[in-house]
Structures are given as C-alpha cells and as structure tokens.
Write a structure and sequence with these properties.
alpha+beta, five-stranded antiparallel sheet, 16 strands, binds ligand PZK
Length: 287
Amino acid sequence: MPEAAEHVGSGKVRELFALDDERLLLVASDRISTFDVVLPTEIPDKGRVLTGLSAFWFARTHEIVPNHLLALREDGRSTECRRLEMLPIECVVRGYLSGSGWKDYRTTGTVCGHVLPSGLAESSKLSEPVFTPSTKAMTGHDENIDRDRALELMEPELYDAAEQASLAVYQFASDYANARGIIIADTKFEFGLDPEGRLVLGDEALTPDSSRFWPADVYAAGGPQPSFDKQFARDYCETVGWDKTYPGPELPDEIVAGTRARYVEAFERLTGIAFDDYVADPEAVLR
Ligand code: PZK
C-alpha cells in the first residue's frame, strides 16, 4: 500500500490513490460482487488475476490505442497509471446480446440507436459488434445512450475516436480469447485524454469484472449463459434464498476455491502464463 498517498476514489472492489500530480495507483482487492452486491467473503488472488489480465491486454493493444499503464507493482495487484481527464461516457462494445442490451432490444428492437435484425434471442451473436455507450451513474445503473445523447456531453471527433478505438480493441481481444475457448460477450472501456489531448485507454480493460466472459464450449443462444468466473458464486447465492440486497451471504470454502480456480483458469488460458509465474514476477505479462 502507498505511504502517504491520497485516496482519491473507490470502486466497488477497487481503490484509487494519487501518487503525484501526473500518476495514480489503482489497487484491485479480492472482493467479489454478485447481483451488484459486494459479498462478505473474498476470493484469494482475484485482485492479482484482474490486474495481471488487464496489464496483459494493455501490453498487447497499445499499438491500437495508447493506454494509461506505467508500471505493475511487485504485489501484482497495483497498477501505476497516468492521470487522465476521463471522458463522460462508458465505452461499451457488445458482440452478443446480453444484459441491458438484450433488455433494450426486447422492448425497442434497438440498442443505443443501433437497429438490430428481428428474431434475435438472448445471447445471440451479433453480425457485427456494436458500440453502445452509457452515462456514468454514481449510484444505480448506467443508462444506455445513443450517439446524439452522447454528443450533448462531448465533441463528435472525440466520440468517433473513442468508438473506433473501442471496436478495434474489442475485436482484437475477442478474437484472441475465442481461440482460447473464452467468449468476451461484451466489455466496458473507459478512456481519457492525456495532457496533450490524445485519447488514452484507462481503468481496467478486458477483465471479467469489466466484461462478460463465457465458456465457449457450452455457448448456446436462447437464454442466459453461465459466467466463466462467477457462476459458482452466483449459483450458490441462488440456492440460499438470498433476496439480493445488502448484505450478501458468506461463501463456503468449496465455492471460494472453485471460484478462485475459474479466475486463475481464465488468466492462464488467456495469457498462456502460469499464475504462479505471474505472482513471482508480475512483469511476465508485459513481455
Ligand atoms: C479514474 N476512475 C474510476 C477506477 C476507483 C475509481 N488514469 C486515470 N486518470 C484519471 N482518473 C481515472 C483514471 C483511471 N483509471 C478512474 N475514476 C477516475 C475508478 C478504479 C477505482 F476508485
């Protein structure tokens, strides 16, 4: 943990500290949320898995769009990053119809202004991935918006650049993951501007917390898909009759172990690096 670093923000399962005027430290905890509630039980190494995966993607996509990564700390869960002026929208890309995309399609036939073909089912693969931005809600859920609504918040050139970068990074990662048996159904990026006004990818990228990861071997459109990482925890939560409001249930040891194994499996399949090797030397994901 940083000595005398100012705490500047909290996510549900992450913390942000200022290192100086130009740099931030992003720290990923082992906390897990299901049904939007952070559970009282931690998943050992979850923060390391997500930090390592995000750094892996940053190292492999920086030629598509520059990113905020400066360094990985020895603890494997902390990322030093460039301080940016963040855009006012969340940059979501969907390759499959799920979550709010499926919900919007069912009621309107469209998602964020994209008119989709009729007859699609829940979890259907889209013929082309679509850029479906949302507003950043501090409380409650982000609201899907179309291009015109986004242009009330930002310049069109910047919107178009963020859309193009989002689609390109998603396409790269989606193809990469698919070849390793993982479907990235959708993902959320956060971009910012550096002091020179250049578009830079920030936050965490292409992790199971910022994306839907589905196991490709059991994929079948027509209903919800199991989550690659959280399915054991979700299934357990469903069996105990929890009403999905705070506080959530404690997870038993076998659910913790099974969930940890799935996070580690996603890390190893995608990076091709043994998780123990990452823990011994986090910079292994950058090479
Ligand atoms: C930034 N967040 C969200 C993420 C939290 C909060 N590189 C950057 N420069 C400026 N601001 C941010 C970033 C990044 N990343 C990100 N809020 C501000 C967030 C994680 C934990 F507490």
